[in-house]
Design goal:
Layout lengths: L2 E10 L2 E2 H9 L6 E2 L5 H4 L3 E2 L12 H17 L8 E7 L4 H7 L14 H7 L5 E6 L4 H14 L5 E8 L3 H8 L24 E9 L8 E10 L9 H15 L8 E3 L8 H13 L7 E3 L2 H4 L6 H15 L1 E2 L16 E2 L5 E2 L4 E8 L3 E8 L3
């Protein structure tokens, strides 16, 4: 059973949802110098930070998440005091940065603050339950799949689907080990891409049952999942194909109906060729295929919130008929030759069915299909 999206809010290095989409259309990148962590120690010099004055505050991811939940609930009209509302928060790192900080300075950090129930219920104390799931870079997509199950089973009148992550020193250090010199910008699907960089952000969407409201931003048809455990970091094309096939099977739609793909597009050596090949095989096997964009060149890799940040952008594409270019993409990689990447300028298009990819370490993959509500 499909569900309806009635509210959506995000926060990225480029601002809120409206500001982020405007910057994407203009081809603006939010990359800047790395903050809070010594770039020499982690071998990473750049990142996509949410700008804040002063020294690094604790629980930054929780604060962004709470603001997004507040705004999405207000937009949706859902009232947790009167309705059964559950929240599912996808993340990769939770509030790991607070743990790192506590190892260097005396900090009294309650264990429950490392998850996100406290942050969400401070905004809306009548939300019945808040569950934090940690599913790497596809956590937001997995949260969407679980939320749709809750709606379909009648376990909730509405679900807050959210995701958030802030940068941590340990994650930056891992990225810094992949190459002698890391990227100065993420360049998805570019022949001269040099790797991924972290972004900071949060997202929250509200979904409700089909037929429960007349105001909706879009319809969630399905989220296909796979967990192939192929390798710690190397993507598996067959595992991701299964997630795509699962999404189409659940949605009763065909790949030929897709108008736009918002790709995972990490700008890495392994992900981009694999994803380009798979888009060609699954979505463009009988022609040019759908338009393709990706947003990490502008906002970085927002980790657990990445799928939902992309979904908010997808909603704005549906609303405006505009598709932002892939920031950082100048010359497509060999595997992407002939695919319909949006490059340089926004594309105008009549959009109905959109496909959002999110792939994670360990082979946890999520592919979400949404469509216009007619």
């Amino acid at each position: 059973m499909s569900a309806l999206i009635t509210g959506s809010a995000i926060q990225t290095c480029l601002g809120n949802g409206e500001a982020t989409f405007s910057a994407l259309l203009q081809g603006i990148s939010g990359v800047g110098d790395l903050r809070y962590v010594d770039p020499v120690k982690v071998n990473v010099a750049h990142g996509y930070h949410i700008a804040e004055d002063g020294q690094e505050a604790l629980f930054r991811a929780s604060r962004w998440l709470a603001a997004c939940v507040r705004d999405a609930l207000a937009q949706s009209g859902v009232d947790p005091e009167q309705q059964r509302v559950i929240a599912i928060v996808g993340t990769w790192l939770r509030e790991l940065r607070a743990v790192e900080r506590s190892a260097l300075e005396p900090l009294d950090i309650p264990a429950e603050r490392l998850h996100f129930a406290y942050a969400v219920q401070q905004i809306s104390p009548h939300i019945a339950e808040v569950v934090t799931i940690s599913n790497a870079c596809s956590a937001g997509g997995h949260a969407m799949a679980l939320a749709q199950d809750l709606i379909e089973l009648g376990e909730a009148d509405a679900v807050v689907v959210a995701g958030t992550d802030a940068m941590t020193e340990s994650m930056l250090a891992m990225i810094g080990r992949f190459a002698d010199a890391t990227a100065d910008q993420v360049r998805p699907f570019d022949a001269n891409r040099t790797g991924v960089l972290l972004g900071e952000g949060a997202a929250a969407l509200i979904i409700v049952p089909e037929g429960s409201t007349e105001r909706a931003l879009a319809r969630v048809l399905s989220t296909g999942l796979s967990c192939d455990a192929f390798h710690e970091t190397v993507p598996d094309i067959d595992g991701i194909r299964r997630a795509m096939q699962d999404a189409f099977s659940r949605a009763a739609r065909t790949p030929a109906q897709v108008d736009l793909v918002i790709a995972h597009g990490t700008g890495t050596v392994l992900n981009d060729p694999m994803e380009a090949k798979l888009i060609r095989q699954v979505l463009a096997s009988n022609g040019a295929g759908p338009l393709i964009t990706a947003i990490k060149g502008a906002v970085g890799h927002t980790s657990g919130g990445a799928a939902l940040v992309a979904l908010d952008v997808a909603l704005r594409c549906l609303d405006t008929g505009l598709v932002p270019p892939v920031v950082g993409l100048r010359e497509p990689l060999e595997e992407g030759q002939g695919l319909r990447f949006v490059i340089g300028e926004p594309a105008e298009a009549s959009l109905k069915l959109l496909h959002i990819n999110a792939f994670g370490f360990g082979g946890v993959n999520a592919v979400t299909l949404i469509e216009r509500v007619v």
